[in-house]
Amino acid sequence: MDQVNRVYLDHNATTPLRGEARDAMLAAMDLVGNPSSVHAEGRSAKMVVERARAQVAALVGCLSTQVVFTGSATEAAALAVAQKGRHGGRFAALPTEHDCLLDWSEAELPSLVGRDGFYNAVRMNDMTCRLSEAAKNGGALLLAMSAANSETGIVAPIVPHSSTYEVSEHYDEGPLSVEATTVCDITQAVGKIPLQWDRLFKPSYAILSAHKLGGPKGVGALINFTADDPEPMLRGGGQEMGRRSGTENVVGIAGFGAAAAAAQRDVEAGKWDKIEKLRNILESALEAASNTTIFVGKESRRLPNTSCFATPGWKGETQVMQMDLAGFAISAGSACSSGKVKASRVLKAMGLGDIAGDAVRVSLGLDTTEDDVMRFADTWAQKLKKHEARAA
Description:
This protein has two domains: 19-267, Aspartate Aminotransferase, domain 2; 270-391, Aspartate Aminotransferase, domain 1, CATH 3.90.1150. Helices cover 35% and strands 12% of the residues. It has helices spanning 19-29, 40-60, 73-81, 99-102, 121-135, 239-242, 250-268, 271-289, 316-325, 345-349, 370-391, and strands spanning 7-8, 67-70, 91-93, 141-144, 158-160, 165-167, 180-185, 205-209, 220-224, 294-295, 306-310, 328-329, 359-363. Strands 2-9-8-7-4-3 form a six-stranded mixed β-sheet, sandwiched between helices. Strands 10-11-13 form a three-stranded antiparallel β-sheet. Strands 1-12 form a two-stranded parallel sheet. Helix 1 (19-29) runs antiparallel to helix 7 (250-268), helix 2 (40-60) runs parallel beside helix 7 and helix 8 packs parallel to helix 11 (370-391).
């Protein structure tokens, strides 16, 4: 299929660059100064960085001084984990977390969300016990939990507190507490759903990335909600108020800020409501074509743009390749595994077993149309019929 006619449905992997971000980056490219220099040229560059810092802070709902620019959300995650000594000395991540956090985990924890997409009170109790066991020699833990899962779109019904988690819905048992401070991955949620941090209910740290909301690749941020500056991993020039040395990527940061401001306007204008309707239209069309396909977390709260579904016996990798050849870009799991396509670790942790290898993710963007999703559904249905004919 001609590139002009391709349909991009992998926005959770990365998003097209917003026009506002492109314009801001082009303007920043003409700046000569180093933002650490005190002359006029340096102050001009510094002004761009600080404007962007304020724009990111406004989107996240924090103070400008709490934003630390990094090279990616992965670096932001590593910087957050490096602060574990201030939070009991141990770090743990749920098995449904992104690899940038899970790979640092020092404790094996259960998934809190089941195959139906709902968080489970029994699993929460199990995690409480495991955290207590893991922390018995070191006090509290620094615990990672995402605001929304990148593969399934399932939004966590848990409010991060400075010292506990409180389960806020789907339970008859009432609130449960876990003694742990938190790193919250807001990479997929920010810019799609409102983030409402109460002054008494917020994580210790949050991480996000520009390219998930229409900004450039290669720039992210750590949000430090604690009273203390994070201990830097990169030392040298003392940039970012001593929290992350290295000359700031002025061009990338300018694009990040402009994208954050545009994303905030989109959320406030309710633009994602339309995308949620398109997602539901897509799923209805796919259900009409297959009575065996499982939609992960369909009855739970999800990101408005995300659909993760599995058709038993039809490998996700095969679906991705077939749809790519037909002109549609989708994915099987996270895009951050060096191009590897394998059974979703997240879905396995949720209890989907072998079906995890049959799952794909479709993630819509603000430019996605009803024609796009219906063309995808029709093509997918045709590919399914051929698959079923071969398997018969």
